[in-house]
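Example S7 (structure tokens).
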């Protein structure tokens, strides 16, 4: 098992909080790339160690969708984009979400609440949860929403198995990824003219307490889990106090998960992901 064999000491890096405004010029996407059309590439903004306000990431997605639509209409290229990040604590609701799944008064919410255009009911995003936003042109893949949802689930299933030997599964009739009755990953998307956005959220080291203030995804009598929790349970079961099993520090666990998710995303969607760190995007200074 990848996590139990190494005896090195893992260290924790601080998670950066982006509280200052970031202009659209801070990220750029080469929509008119001259790359070989046979080379399927996906530009990835890897912000997985940063806390991005939900509204900012939502605006980025919508701007990317607008630009991709314009590129398609003008006959230009429309490569795929992937954004990976963590959010500051926030609740998000889908287009038809019901307030009956909130265990608090909207006028006195513990965190900001955003009603979005994605599908699905209310969920929570916060530190320790990795969020992947693929903004992709389904014309380049398969124009089938059921296929796309199952593909996002497959990304998580492969990542959990390859990085942690966690055998997660789908639950018939529901969207997401589960271990037993605990939901580890939630998925909610929006598709406009076959450009898909929003995406998936996977609990890695997240504090799960805020989920108690909602009915996550509108599912009663179902739990919410995290990678950290599952590894901790496995460690206790294996060790029985006799053998030390090394579990990575929280930030390193997020790093491992991010790498596994991006690798699985490449495999499932048959893309070559080109990571573009935020600092590089700032230096390039191009607009969306």
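Recovered sequence:
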């Amino acid at each position: 098992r990848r996590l139990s064999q190494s005896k090195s000491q893992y260290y924790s890096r601080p998670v950066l909080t982006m509280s200052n405004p970031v202009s659209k010029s801070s990220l750029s996407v080469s929509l008119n790339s001259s790359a070989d059309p046979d080379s399927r590439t996906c530009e990835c903004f890897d912000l997985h160690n940063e806390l991005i306000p939900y509204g900012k990431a939502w605006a980025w997605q919508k701007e990317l969708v607008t630009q991709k639509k314009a590129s398609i209409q003008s006959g230009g290229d429309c490569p795929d984009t992937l954004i990976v990040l963590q959010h500051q604590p926030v609740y998000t609701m889908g287009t038809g979400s019901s307030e009956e799944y909130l265990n608090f008064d909207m006028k006195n919410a513990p965190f900001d609440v955003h009603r979005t255009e994605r599908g699905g009911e209310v969920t929570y995003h916060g530190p320790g949860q990795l969020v992947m936003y693929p903004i992709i042109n389904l014309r380049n893949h398969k124009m089938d929403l059921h296929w796309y949802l199952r593909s996002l689930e497959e990304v998580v299933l492969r990542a959990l198995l390859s990085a942690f030997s966690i055998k997660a599964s789908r639950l018939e009739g529901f969207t997401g990824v589960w271990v037993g009755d605990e939901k580890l990953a939630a998925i909610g998307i929006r598709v406009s003219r076959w450009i898909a956005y929003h995406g998936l959220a996977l609990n890695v080291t997240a504090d799960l307490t805020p989920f108690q203030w909602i009915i996550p995804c509108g599912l009663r009598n179902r739990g919410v889990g995290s990678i950290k929790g599952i590894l901790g349970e496995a460690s206790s079961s294996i060790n029985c106090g006799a053998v030390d099993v090394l579990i990575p520090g929280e930030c390193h666990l997020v790093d491992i998960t991010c790498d596994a998710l991006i690798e699985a995303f490449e495999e499932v969607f048959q893309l070559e992901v080109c990571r573009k760190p935020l600092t590089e995007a700032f230096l390039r200074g191009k607009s969306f």
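Notes on this example. Residues 21 and 56 are 8 Å apart (CA to CA).
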